[in-house]
């Protein structure tokens, strides 16, 4: 039972055509085609519109009044039924946007439900089964089972009676004037969901509430239902698929190991019909396509979470990425800054196509680990848009696109290619063994006649063995820590529906805490652990030198500096600090190479480390641990053997060409097409000297590279 618009509601009764399914337009098309085939002339728009919500008998009378008494309505309708069913069998039933979300919520809160349709039972059941919504309804009442069609109230009264519910306690959802009149005359609670032809104003005014779409009704429905709250880690994803597509632009650790989960939880009632994920990794694409799913492992809780319903695309396939931006309702963007600059043109083309085709809003979650990441992406996309369209159209597209600043407090790592290959090798042997062990199904001797069910089942039998074997395989692609919420700047209505997203009016505070308290110390710990010979963060934290530095960074430098600057953040800083240190201690699956990569980006003047130093010095707080961390970054870059870490290579070149760390710290050359914001050799002279002291000092003596 729910209270809706002040009414006590126990049941909901749905019209089918035009209300649940977008079939009225299809019906118009098939009736025109059938009339032209049989009668030589298509039915008029007047006849088609006028017959909405009428019984077959009244629709026939209208057709003959407009087209002559000899009009073969029965034959035309029969042929239209055939054409319509053929289309539905080939293409599926066109479900109204928001329907599944509505049905799931009503069922979740205990309402009984019925269908009250003017269609014949044979057609109604095929449509309901085809659309996979028959499961929601306790009762189905069809047009060939009542003596009087809409606008007579018989069909709604019969449905309410079958549900053992008084009409005044039933929501009755309709799209047509005749249907609405039927619900009104049944003394129900009429809900108007407008379709092709809105009812006359005086009729529409009699509805309990009128909406232009199912989503409007869904919004009001949410208001009278309790908030589900954030999911627990082990909560199952909703089994029902809605009509949304979600996109992930950058299927790395955050994209694959976190955003897929965010989208799979969705609103707690349904989840997207597909998640489209773009990556350059051919290995990842082909692996996921072969298995149809993958899992994220939460080692601290010994829990594996399986992600399915994923479609992989090649990020270098511009057309595929453009299509993703065209069809998705929300996209998680999780790419390095350099890649964003390169992809901005493709994103812009996707936004143009989306706007020109549908004009629908798009929400883009910017998961960039950078303060001001949303503005950064917007600027680059805007620059590309201005090259493609007029200034006015550019403004409209940007107004229609939400670039959402986010904060993620989760540590996720992706399996290395080598580890993935080892896992595939083992899974391949398991799969082959399961096929070899499966005996061939016995074949029965031919019989005449063969029962229909047996003939139909035989079509599926060849696929059973391999699919059963595949379902047993479990492919782990990511390791993750268990934090759940994604913090996002409040700006898009869609975000309010996502169960795992926590919207805030001001994202700055959690963003500053995350960037300074987590990102900077996280990198420093990784550099130190790597230089000491540890491959994994958790292993490094077992070394007293690393753990002591971690405690100093958090407890004596960054944490106190943040609280001094923002006293109201004291509790949040304390909570973030405790969680961070706990996670570092158990990050046995998080490679130092992942956390420590791109040190030049992390040594920018206004980024995580030097920004924390400035904040500490402002409040008279000791920043020596951070200065030591900057020296570790330099040693890490000089000793790095990772051929893919171009920033380490650049830092080595700068050091070798000049023979001083000052040349690295004060670098102002081109960085991703922009001047690099390095330290100032004059105003930052004391800081440079302090870092040089650590670089050449006893704590770093064992890291010094031997000279040629």
Automatic annotation (TrEMBL):
Residues 250-415 form the Mannitol dehydrogenase N-terminal domain. The keyword Metal-binding applies. GO terms for molecular function: mannitol-1-phosphate 5-dehydrogenase activity; metal ion binding. Transmembrane segments: none annotated. Residues 517-646 form the Mannitol dehydrogenase C-terminal domain. It is an enzyme of class 1 (oxidoreductase). Its EC number is 1.1.1.17. SUPFAM superfamilies: 6-phosphogluconate dehydrogenase C-terminal domain-like (SSF48179), HAD-like (SSF56784), NAD(P)-binding Rossmann-fold domains (SSF51735). Keywords: Carbohydrate metabolism, Magnesium, Metal-binding, Oxidoreductase. InterPro entries: 6-PGluconate_DH-like_C_sf, 6PGD_dom2, Beta-PGM-like, HAD-like_sf, HAD-SF_hydro_IA, HAD_2, HAD_sf, Mannitol_DH_C. Belongs to the HAD-like hydrolase superfamily. CbbY/CbbZ/Gph/YieH family. This is Mannitol-1-phosphate 5-dehydrogenase. It comes from Pseudomonas fluorescens. The gene is mtlD.
